[in-house]
Amino acid sequence: MRKLPISFFHLLSYPKNSILVTSEDREGRANAMAAAWHTPLSVNPPSYGVAISPKRATYKLIVESGRFGINFLPFELLDSLHTCGRTSFNELGEEKIRRAGINPIRGEFGAYILQEAYVSFECSLEDIVKVGDHDLFIGEVRSLYLRGELRGNIIDVERVKPILYMGEDHYVTVDSRSLRRGRILQGIH
Amino acid sequence: MRKLPISFFHLLSYPKNSILVTSEDREGRANAMAAAWHTPLSVNPPSYGVAISPKRATYKLIVESGRFGINFLPFELLDSLHTCGRTSFNELGEEKIRRAGINPIRGEFGAYILQEAYVSFECSLEDIVKVGDHDLFIGEVRSLYLRGELRGNIIDVERVKPILYMGEDHYVTVDSRSLRRGRILQGIH
């Protein structure tokens, strides 16, 4: 086991599923930001957190509108997601989303979600927790949409290939053949 | 696109890499809890967050000791990880970790990490953010250990198979053949 510089810590926490966070400006123009730093936070109330840098256009847009979308795209659209991660709404406006080839629509709660997503949530902004060079946006999940397939209650990874971010512009998806149920070990072994 | 009950939201956010959070009681006895709700939060300071239910033994242990470990295990040890997710330190004490077949050691900062992990961090507890039925523990990363292999600056998924949680006791790993670099789309397509 070797010790590494702490600056590597986030790269070593990957893979993480990479999502698009949808937002809007005051004129209702849609934006989408790629994010890999996000997680459920609570079942009741249904709370979802995403870390956002104050440097990103999305930060201000969500603060102003009080709502956002969380969108999971299939692996074949990773260049669309990556384009949203590497271009800026501040420079391109709605052209950003057009270049990425994705289509925002309004959900029932009024936030933008993406037609291309296999799962989308709409969230209301409940809190912003100051951390460091990113802040954590905590949203309450207000609606949930599914385009992809489930197997029982879980995403059917034989049919839905999620996008996992590896760091340094690299992405990977899952090996559906490896899916298996965990067993509880009973003895010392 | 169909609307689903909001109670599905966390299942639909999977896969997430599943980790073991290591902690200790006042006698220095080690515990490990499986967690899938965790994320980097900031590069500077290096901050990592993990959502923990107050019902879990780990919650109190970390509050008391002020430190914890974040450990990423290889896919061949998913039953070890799953055992830590489905048994309780409150009932089993150190026997929990023995049943899981994992070996805690002290890191440089004094927190427990796991010999079997391909990556481990030690964290100091900086803040607990109340959310709902889980709270977010925010740690500052104090040390970083690597047993697995890197390719450039990222985890070499051809050699290191991470454990991804799918919900409902199911796990999957990545398809290393799918690894690729994202491209930035330039035009409308």
Keywords:
189 residues; Pnp Oxidase, Chain A; 15 strands; seven-stranded antiparallel beta sheet
- Which quaternary structure do these chains form? homodimer
Largest interface: A-B, 97 and 97 residues
- Structural class designation of chain A: mainly beta
CATH superfamily of chain A: Electron Transport, Fmn-binding Protein, Chain A
Q: Given the C-alpha coordinates, what overall shape of chain A results?
A: globular
SSE topology string of chain A: EEEEEEHEHHHEEEEEEEE
Number of helices of chain A: 4
Number of structural domains of chain A: 1
- Just give the CATH class of chain A: Mainly Beta
SS strand fraction of chain A: 35-45%
- The separation of the N and C termini of chain A measures 23 Å
Helix fraction of chain A, binned, reads 10-25%
InterPro entries (chains A, B): Flavin_Rdtase-like_dom (IPR002563), Flavoredoxin-like (IPR053310), Split_barrel_FMN-bd (IPR012349)
Cofactor (chains A, B): FMN
GO molecular function (chains A, B): FMN binding
Protein name (chains A, B): Flavin reductase domain protein FMN-binding
Task: Characterise the protein shown here.
2 copies of one chain form a homodimer. Chain A is mainly beta. Chain A has a single domain, classed as Roll (Pnp Oxidase, Chain A). Helix content of chain A is 15%, strand content 44%. Chain A has 4 helices and 15 strands. The first copy, chain A, has helices at residues 57-65, 78-86, 89-92, 95-100, and strands at residues 2-3, 16-17, 19-24, 30-35, 38-42, 47-52, 67-72, 104-106, 112-114, 119-130, 135-146, 150-151, 154-155, 164-167, 170-181. In chain A, the strands form 4 sheets. The first copy, chain A, has a 7-stranded antiparallel beta sheet with strand order 4-3-7-10-11-6-5. In chain A, strands 2-14-15 form a 3-stranded antiparallel beta sheet, with no helix packed on it. Chain A is globular and about 60 Å long. The mean pLDDT of chain A is 96. Chains A, B: InterPro entries: Flavin_Rdtase-like_dom, Flavoredoxin-like, Split_barrel_FMN-bd. Chains A, B: Its cofactor is FMN. Chains A, B: GO terms for molecular function: FMN binding.
